[in-house]
């Protein structure tokens, strides 16, 4: 964009650069379609806003006063309805006849639910640093080894659990401290897809998700891998194709498998009560995989926009040799966002070259970056392993991404964000060993670096390997000293971390490694760790969250729940030891004013191993492939 007036140019530069602000989700809040500029402050900050009172300037008026009669080339304020061609010129006064009209279109204020842009980075009032928990107390409530846990949408104490081979169970979670175990009948699964699911080290049923209106429509979805040699219905377009500059005939066999023999699938099913139709209702997505690792596979629904998010790895191969993660036409190494409520006709699916039965949300990033495949929400991932939304702040969408050789990371995912792989591994520049698919220069991207993470050298020093498992913001009152912290872990059980954001809503985190113990009164005794006074969790596959907002850890040794710290003799000054009152399952604790913002993520920013050890390298050794 060319601007002749220097003062106006400076103002517009700050406006355009605000897209990189940690709070761009709030600044670019959308009521009806995407916007090219942030909400410009046009008044004072309200008393209940978490935004600093310093943000009180009428910045919208300043922009109007300095730029109204300046000729702009490709103005970001030009309305797309105007049909203006590329490199067209315009003035603000051509479209808006007054400051009032201009600021009605682009201005706004800061209140409890939003922020506005005043020409400077957003600053928040709350700078309180909460005290760190002295440790994490766990109880073991189940012996099963599961990969996914999803709270029942009805708000009850029931959860869905699934394993890698392809079974889903409906289970009942006992009250914390009751001394009871998980109620589950593993001989009677809710759904059994073991005949369709291909299971191996990095293959299997990788995710389950239930429609936000599941209680009305019974719709739910599974994400799994299949083998087209063994199952004829496993057939889709290969992710290595001419559209992304890849020729599958040039790929070598990987672990004995030809390219795109295995596929990633999202399938829809229907349930009524506790029964389910065993046949899939609809194939949402099918994509052939060029290699045999790094397929992510988690699916979840956005809590505010209702769209389905699908986490996909770079497809495998050491160092992402075909640079799929940075290829804007490839869905590998991406987070994908789909509308599964508006199903197009088969003809339309073919015309649009879709991967299945879904439609594209109109505010996906392709609406602003025409180079992007329309399904893409964010790019630059190696193997995103476990993502979650913070239910108190839906603009906070955090994903853990498995590293290659140096660093494991946690990212705040925003609309159109580029998280660097394979140009960067975490905060470090990465030099790929081979590049038949070409390179992307560091100067050509604007990477978003991790907010949390750890170096491989910090864990498993003997094995020299690491693999991150993403978790959740802790929002239960069971352990009040853990409240508001983001929990994540290493696959090998070498560490569990709590990330603390200071100040709140700043995007600035510090992580501390947690001491953890098993409660002496655990319903199921915990296994002792050989040569140690502690106990062994085994491999940490995933975290789970129930409708009470309690956090669970899904491991190779069983299912664990985070419980009151006093049960392990940990000290928490705010724990009510004598008169603990549990929140009702359907009523989460009331958030403090500084954490109560509800921003739509669409506005946007922000193995299971078999029981044999032959599968224990699910994510660890894959880091070195």
UniProtKB/TrEMBL annotation:
It holds the Pfam family GSDH. Residues 149-449 form the Glucose/Sorbosone dehydrogenase domain. Keywords: Cell membrane, Glycoprotein, Lipoprotein, Membrane, Oxidoreductase, PQQ, Signal, Transmembrane, Transmembrane helix. Its main location: membrane. The chain crosses the membrane at residues 605-624. GO terms for molecular function: oxidoreductase activity. It comes from the Eukaryota. It is found in: Cell membrane. GO terms for cellular component: plasma membrane. It is a lipid-anchor. Its cofactor is pyrroloquinoline quinone. Belongs to the PQQ oxidoreductase GdhB family. PANTHER family: CATALYTICS, HEDGEHOG-INTERACTING PROTEIN. This is Glucose/Sorbosone dehydrogenase domain-containing protein. The lineage of its organism: Eukaryota, Viridiplantae, Streptophyta, Embryophyta, Tracheophyta.
């Amino acid at each position: 964009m060319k601007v002749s007036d220097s003062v106006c140019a400076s103002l517009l530069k700050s406006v355009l650069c605000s897209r990189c602000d940690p709070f761009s989700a709030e600044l670019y809040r959308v009521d009806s379609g995407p916007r090219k500029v942030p909400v410009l402050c046009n008044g004072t900050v309200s008393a209940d806003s978490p935004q600093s009172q310093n943000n009180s300037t009428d910045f919208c008026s300043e922009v109007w006063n300095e730029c109204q009669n300046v000729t702009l080339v490709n103005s970001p304020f030009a309305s797309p309805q105007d049909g203006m061609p590329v490199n067209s010129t315009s003035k603000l006064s051509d479209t808006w006849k007054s400051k009032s009209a201009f600021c009605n279109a682009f201005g706004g204020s800061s209140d409890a639910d939003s922020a506005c842009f005043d020409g400077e980075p957003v600053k928040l009032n709350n700078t309180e640093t909460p005290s760190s928990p002295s440790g994490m107390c766990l109880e073991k409530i189940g012996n099963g080894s599961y990969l996914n846990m999803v709270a029942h949408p009805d708000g009850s104490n029931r959860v869905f659990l699934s394993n890698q081979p392809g079974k889903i169970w409906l289970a009942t979670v006992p009250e914390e401290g009751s001394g009871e175990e998980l109620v589950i009948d593993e001989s009677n699964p809710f759904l059994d897809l073991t005949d369709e699911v291909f299971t191996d080290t990095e293959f299997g049923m990788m995710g389950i998700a239930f429609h936000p209106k599941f209680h009305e429509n019974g719709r739910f979805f599974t994400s799994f891998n299949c083998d087209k040699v063994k199952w004829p219905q496993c057939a889709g377009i290969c992710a290595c194709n001419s559209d992304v500059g890849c020729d599958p005939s040039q790929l070598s066999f990987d672990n004995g498998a030809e390219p795109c023999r295995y596929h990633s699938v999202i399938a829809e099913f229907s349930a009524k009560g506790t029964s389910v139709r065993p046949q899939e209702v609809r194939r949402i997505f099918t994509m052939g995989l060029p290699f045999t690792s790094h397929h992510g596979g988690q699916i979840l629904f956005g809590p505010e926009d209702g769209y389905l998010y699908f986490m996909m790895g770079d497809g495998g191969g050491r160092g992402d040799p075909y640079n799929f993660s940075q290829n804007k036409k490839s869905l590998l190494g991406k987070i994908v966002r789909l509308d599964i409520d508006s199903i197009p006709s088969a003809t339309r699916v073919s015309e649009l070259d879709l991967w299945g039965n879904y439609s594209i949300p109109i505010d996906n990033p392709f609406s602003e970056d025409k180079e992007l495949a329309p399904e893409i929400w964010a790019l630059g991932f190696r193997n995103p392993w476990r993502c979650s939304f913070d239910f108190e702040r839906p603009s906070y969408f955090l994903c853990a991404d498995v590293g290659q050789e140096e660093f494991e990371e946690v990212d705040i995912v925003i609309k159109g964000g580029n998280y660097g792989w394979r140009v960067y591994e975490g905060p470090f520049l990465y030099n790929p060993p081979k590049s038949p698919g070409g390179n992307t220069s560091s100067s050509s991207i604007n990477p978003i670096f991790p907010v949390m993470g750890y170096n491989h050298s910090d864990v498993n020093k003997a094995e020299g390997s690491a693999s991150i498992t993403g978790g959740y913001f802790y929002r239960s009152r069971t352990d009040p000293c853990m409240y508001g912290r983001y929990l994540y872990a290493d696959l090998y059980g070498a560490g569990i971390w709590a990330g603390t954001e200071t100040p709140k809503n700043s995007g600035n985190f510090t992580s501390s490694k947690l001491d953890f113990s098993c409660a002496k009164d655990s319903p199921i005794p915990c296994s002792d760790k050989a040569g140690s006074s502690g106990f062994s969790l085994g491999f940490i596959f995933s975290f789970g969250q129930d409708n009470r907002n309690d956090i669970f850890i899904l491991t190779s040794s069983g299912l664990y729940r985070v419980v009151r710290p006093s049960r392990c003799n940990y000290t928490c000054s705010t724990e009510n030891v004598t008169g603990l009152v549990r929140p009702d399952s359907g009523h989460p604790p009331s958030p403090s004013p500084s954490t109560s913002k509800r921003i739509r993520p669409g506005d946007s920013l922000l193995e299971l191993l078999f029981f044999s050890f032959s599968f224990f390298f699910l994510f660890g050794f894959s880091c070195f492939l």
